[in-house]
Amino acid sequence: MNSETNPKLSSPDEAHEAEARAQLERELEAGETLRWCSRANVEALVQRAREATSFGTGFLVAAIVWTVLSGLFAMSVGGWAFFWPAWGLVLCGFAVWIRRAPSRARLEAASTFYGVTDRRAIVIEGTLKRSVRSWRPGEPTSSPNTRKRNLNPATLTSIKQTQSPDGTGDVLFAEVGTVGKSGSVHWATIGFYGVRDPGHVASLLREIAP
Fold first, then answer.
1. Could you tell me the maximum CA-CA distance found in the chain, to the nearest angstrom?
2. What is the pLDDT of residue 126?
3. Cα distances (Å, whole numbers) of residue 125 to 15, 86, 104, 105, 151
């Protein structure tokens, strides 16, 4: 197991850089070299969670209105009608859970680490339940939901990057497609989000890409 010293390593500070390197080096295979590593950018993951759950506020308002109106109806009718406000409370709880996604993302970011070696891209997530996923050139991605049929192209064949004025950006390198029971396809993009100097990270991935 080897690691390279790279002046362009992307991490918020030296402590985070050391933590990321320690986490990634634990996962290296024999003879594998760590070329870049970073702890996840907290604000980038929080922003992604906000965008993904932007409907949460409207859903919560609708659930509250449903609960109140069905509650008034149940009080006038009685009996089985109380099922509807009870269901409304369940919907309210679900809406609150959706609204808390940014807070959960903030906690998860502290234990999310990205790495690029001379063989693959690596993402480590979780504290109590540690998850280590890696993507090698040309390998089909795997869906976390094995009950769904996969539509997954090979990884590291189409590397994309974005960059913000502050110098941070996203590096995207794989997609996971799953087909639900209804036949609809959901695609999830895999990548490193909010990293510093995304151009450098993307160039490292292209060096190992087929």
1. 74
2. 78
3. 18, 36, 13, 11, 24
